[in-house]
Every structure is written in C-alpha cells, then in structure tokens.
C-alpha cells in the first residue's frame, strides 16, 4: 500500500511539473507563411490557396482571435496580459501570390503583416508597388507591411555597415515609398545576433520576427519565434501549431 501511495505521489508530481512547464512556456502562435503557390508546396515553404483557406476556416471555427503583429507587440511592450486565444499571421518575402492570400483573409476579416524585401518589389514573382498601395489603402483590410531588409542578406554574415544599411535604410525606404510607418522587421532566414537586436531597437522598430531561432525560450519582442505553416497542416497538426505550446517542445536553434 505504501508503495502504491509513493507511486501515485510521483505520478502527480510529474504531471504537475509538466503542466507548470508548459504553462510557463506558452507563447502566442505567430504563423509564418511565404507563398500560396500550389506548384511549390513540396519544395518550398508554401501552401496551396485551397489549403490556406481551410486553415483560415479552422482558425475561425475554433474561435481563435487573429490580431495584427503590431497590436500583439504593443501588448508585449506595455507589459499587458496576453489572452490565450490570440493568433498572428505573417508572410515573408512579398511574393506576388500574397495578394491572393490577402483576398482570402479579407473574407475572414483577418489582419496580417507582409514582410517586403525592398530591392525585390516589382520584380518578377514579387508584389508590385501598385498592388501594395492598393491593399494598404483599402479601409476594409487590416494588412500591414514590415521590412525583410533591403536584399534579404543573412545578417550575421554581414559587416556592421551593411547590417545597419539593411535594417535602417529598408525601414526608411518603405516608409517613404508607401507613406506608412514601418514598425516591424523579419530577419532573413531567421538569422540575428545580439548586435543586430540592438540595431533593430535603435532603428525604431516595435518588434522583430525570427523563425524558431533564439537565445532562450523567453519571449523577446525583438526576436519573436514563429511557426512555419505547411500544406500538411490541417486538423490535429493545425491545432498543435495553434495551441501556444508548439514551441515549448522545440529546442531553440542558435540564431547565428
């Protein structure tokens, strides 16, 4: 009988410790997309438009609240309590097919942030300035833009002058071109170091997105970990990625 009691106590302690651990490591899921080109789903971080719509339907049907990256980061900056049902949607690179994603998001009234590579705007396969101006000027859409640097350079490999140019000038150029404050940035390939974090804050960004890289599990608004969404993420897989605990079981990768 004594052995049974000890065993039960150990089980309770293990289960209790597990729940304390995941509760302390909850993080609002920031979804990372790139393209909704069906032809690239097997070779690239892409989903088909059909799957993307189903994923948005899943979010709506399960009563998640999609908020803008700006609003989420504002809560972090102000130290406010973060509700457990929030979701943030982001797209990297600014591919032309992102406009289709925007049309789908408009159906659900979901906001999103598109991170633009300044020097790629208007080039083949990328969004044109006219398209960007059109969705930024549409009052029925809550679509924001952020910087994905000037050239999509892997920042940890650049010298200090180049890094500052990628971070500071990309922000200014986007703001001047689209007459809109650029508050967010996404690190190409998720790479950054401690000096990059300082530069981003100095440049006046509210927050910055990485991939699943980071120095620790602690939430840092200048190194926000995101969750890559693939064409396979439906049903239970989508639920897992939206749970807020997905990154709790993933070891942070070295950011550089």
Let me know the largest β-sheet.
6 strands, parallel
Strand content: 5-15%
Q: What would you call the quaternary organization? A: single chain
**DSSP summary: helix tally:** 8
β-strand number: 8
Q: Considering the protein shown, what is the CATH homologous superfamily?
A: Glycoside hydrolase/deacetylase
- CATH top level label: Alpha Beta
State the end-to-end distance.
54 Å
CATH-level-2 architecture: Alpha-Beta Barrel
Topology as a string of helices (H) and strands (E): HEHEHEHEHEHEHEEH
The CATH topology is given as TIM Barrel
The averaged pLDDT comes out at 90
Residue ranges: pLDDT <50 for 5 or more in a row?
A: 15-21
Which structural category fits the helices and strands?
alpha/beta
In total, the number of domains comes to 1
Radius of gyration over all CA atoms, rounded: 20 Å
> Into which percent range does the helicity of residues fall?
25-40%
């Amino acid at each position: 009988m004594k052995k049974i009691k000890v065993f039960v106590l150990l089980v309770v302690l293990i289960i209790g410790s597990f729940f304390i651990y995941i509760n302390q490591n909850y993080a609002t899921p920031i979804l990372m997309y790139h393209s909704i080109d069906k032809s690239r789903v097997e070779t690239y971080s892409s989903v088909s438009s059909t799957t993307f719509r189903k994923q948005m339907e899943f979010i709506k049907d399960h009563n998640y609240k999609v908020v803008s990256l700006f609003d989420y980061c504002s809560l972090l900056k102000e130290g406010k309590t973060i509700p457990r049902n929030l979701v943030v949607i982001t797209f990297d690179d600014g591919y032309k097919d992102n406009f289709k994603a925007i049309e789908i998001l408009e159906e659900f009234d979901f906001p999103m942030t598109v991170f633009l590579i300044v020097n790629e705007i208007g080039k083949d396969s990328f969004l044109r300035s006219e398209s960007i101006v059109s969705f930024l000027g549409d009052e029925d859409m809550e679509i924001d833009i952020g910087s994905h640097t000037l050239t999509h350079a892997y920042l940890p490999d650049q010298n200090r002058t180049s890094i500052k140019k990628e971070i500071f000038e990309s922000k200014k150029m986007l703001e001047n071109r689209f007459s809109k404050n650029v508050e967010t940035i996404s690190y190409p390939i998720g790479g950054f170091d401690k000096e990059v974090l300082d530069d981003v804050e100095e440049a006046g960004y509210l927050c910055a997105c990485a991939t699943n890289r980071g120095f620790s599990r602690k939430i840092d608004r200048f190194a926000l970990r995101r969750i890559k969404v693939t064409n396979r993420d439906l049903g239970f897989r989508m639920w897992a990625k939206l749970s807020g605990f997905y990154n709790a079981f993933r070891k942070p990768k070295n950011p550089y």
